[in-house]
Every structure is written in C-alpha cells, then in structure tokens.
Amino acid sequence: MSVTIEVFPASEGDSILVSSNSSNVLIDAGLYETYHTSIRPRLLKLARESKKIDLFVVTHIDKDHIEGAIELLIENGNSSDPRLIDILEVWHNSYRHLQFEKEARIGEHEKEILRNIISSGRNYVGRTNKESKEISSKHGSSLASLLLTGKYSWNEAFQGKAVQSANSEQVEFNDIVLTLLSPDSKKLKRLENKWKNDLRRMKLNFVFSEEKIFDDAFEFALLNSSSSTEEDVQKPISSTQPKFENLIINEKTSDKSITNGSSIAFIMEICGVKILFLGDAHPDIITEQLEVMSKNESDRVYFDLVKISHHGSAKNTSLKLLRLIDCSKYIISTDGNKHGHPDIGTLAKIIHETRDKAIEIYCNYRTLNSQIIEDLIKSRNYRCTFIYPEDDKSLTIKL
Q1: Beta pairing, strands 265-270 & 273-277
Q2: From CA 262, how far away is CA 185, in angstroms rounded?
Q3: How many domains does the chain have?
Q4: Domain that residue 131 falls in
Q5: pLDDT tens for residues 352-363?
Q6: CA-to-CA distance for 219 and 204, rounded, in angstroms?
Q7: Other C-beta atoms within 10 Å of 344: how many?
Q8: CATH of the domain at 166
Q9: pLDDT tens digits along 93-110
Q10: Quick check: helix, strand or coil at residue 360?
Q11: How many CB atoms neighbour CB 175 within 10 A?
C-alpha cells in the first residue's frame, strides 16, 4: 500500500494533501488562488471517487495558510450536506480554544472595538467571488464562523479544546497515527497574552466573553498583524557566489512570530511511512520533542519525509534541529517571490547535515536560492537532487 503526497502550488503559502487507500488528510489550503486553481479540482475528483477528507488541519492563522480554507468552507457549506466533499474533522485553534476565564457578555464599547477590528481585517481575507461574498456576509467570513455555522467536527479529538502537544500525545484516524509536537501550552499562552494586551491597549479592563464576535475579531486581528509585521524577508544574495561553508555556520536568531509559534506540527505515521509536518512551527519546541524521541533511537529520529518549517526560513531550521533528524527526502513549499524563501542557508544546512547519503529536496517552485545552491553543489561530492513539478502543476511524491 503506497502513500501519495501532493504539494499544491500555493505561492508563498502551504497546502498539502496526504492520501492512502483508506484516508485523506489536507494540511492547510494556501491562498485564494491555491484553492480555486488546484485544491478545488482535486477535491472534486476525490468526491467523484466517493472519498472523503478524514482530517483537515489548518496549522495556524496566517493568510498564506488560511485564505484557501475560508474559500473551501464557504463553498462546501454545511458539514451534514456538503456541496463539495465530506470533511470528517477539522483541527484549527481559534479564540475559543484559549483557556482563560471569560465573562458571559460584553458591553457595547467592547463590541464596537471588535467590529472595527473585523472591518479593517477583512482586507486580508483576499478576493472572493459574488457567491462567496453573499455567503460570508450572512454567516461571517472568518474560518471560525464558517466552522461554527457549518457545524463541522472541530478539534473533537481534543474534546473541543486546543490542539496541542502534551507528552507527545498520539491521535488515531483510520490507518493514521498522529503525534503532536506543537504548539504546547506555553506557545498558546503567548498567543493569548498578545490578544489580551492588544485589546487592553484599546480599552483598559477590556471584558472577554464566549460571544462569537470574538472568534471573528481574533482571526482578523492576527491576519492583519501577520501580514503587516512580517520581518522574515531574506536579503538578496550578492552577485558574488557565496561560500558553502559560510552558509552553514551562519545561524540566525529564532523566529519571534507568536502566530508561527502557535502552528500545529506533528508526526504522521501512515501505511508504514513516517512523515514530519512542521507547518511554520518554531525550532525550539520541535527540537525539544525530538531530543526526547532520539534517546529511544540511534541518536537521530528517522523519517521517510520532512516538510521543512516556514517555507525554508533560516529562523525556523537550526543545525541543532537537523542533527536530530535522519531523513533523505525534504519538502519546501514556496515560490520565493514575497519573502525570499527558502533561505539559502537553510538549504545548505540540510545538504551538509545529510551529506553521507543521497538526498532529495522537493520544491513546488524553482526559486533563485534553490538554483544558487544547485550551482554550488555541482563542484562538490554532495549527492543532492532538487525535484520540481512540471509547469504550474502540483508536486507529487509517492512513498
């Protein structure tokens, strides 16, 4: 029995479909265009084959992961009578999963502040067609609102609470076993504190409640914040070819994005295949978890495939992390246009830390940095092959 991984052309974002004979897992849904040009046709094909999405994971609230998910749920409608495809469970952490004390109701002043946040944040949801606009105006255009009104099974594997790692907790779906690595309670607490502090800057002693308006405001505020404060823009490479050795020793500071820190990351074991999906997770939490696992293995933890965190950003992949991983196949999802991902140093470190074996790096786009690294390793003995899709098609990997 084989496993197929499809990496959709998601511009600067992520969207991956993992399929076996028994199960289908969709991880993120990229941007608006990702959904309409790639995901939607693929889901229609699955539906015609009488198949379902067993699990839909939206790793965190960033536009390049969530925008296509909003479009998918708008079109799919109610979970009990889906217009596109059955989605059996959704994993996604929103305001309602932040476990702090909340009041029964809030005052009009708080509501007005939240309405303003929602109004200003709609610009970051992306373009929608006429039907999408009509539906979203009726039910709310945030992912949280669509999950609620569509009555989807939402974080049910965690009793409706936050998806988070707790002693490497395992969850089973059909022929799949998932081991959660990120976020933990500390990463979620930082997200909670950011949200509370932002609102209290607008109104002292802001009252929090369980009302649905908080779900919309929370999501739009994070989308707005992540789109306007992105600091991880890689500097262009000079015309002089860099030295490979210098790329390896140049460790950058870790990712400080609180949103990325809340990213859902996990190990998937399916049909005898073991895959590490890192979303945009911080390297510290993944390293900490893998260090514990490595004690039960031969220093490194074996994977058949690793999806590198945050589109190959240097701030999310450290040498310490790579030295805990034993793998010969890696995925990087990005077109490189917006933030200069993948970082050339990240590519160099992956190749250096696996130089004793032949490796493959799967990129859903040919980027400037991937081509620079390819040129650098031609004169060396590194057995590394970069694999790209044909034209603008999805990248397909069979294990």
Answers
A1: antiparallel
A2: 9
A3: 1
A4: 4-398
A5: 888 678 999 999
A6: 21
A7: 23
A8: 3.60.15.10
A9: 998 888 777 777 888 888
A10: strand
A11: 16
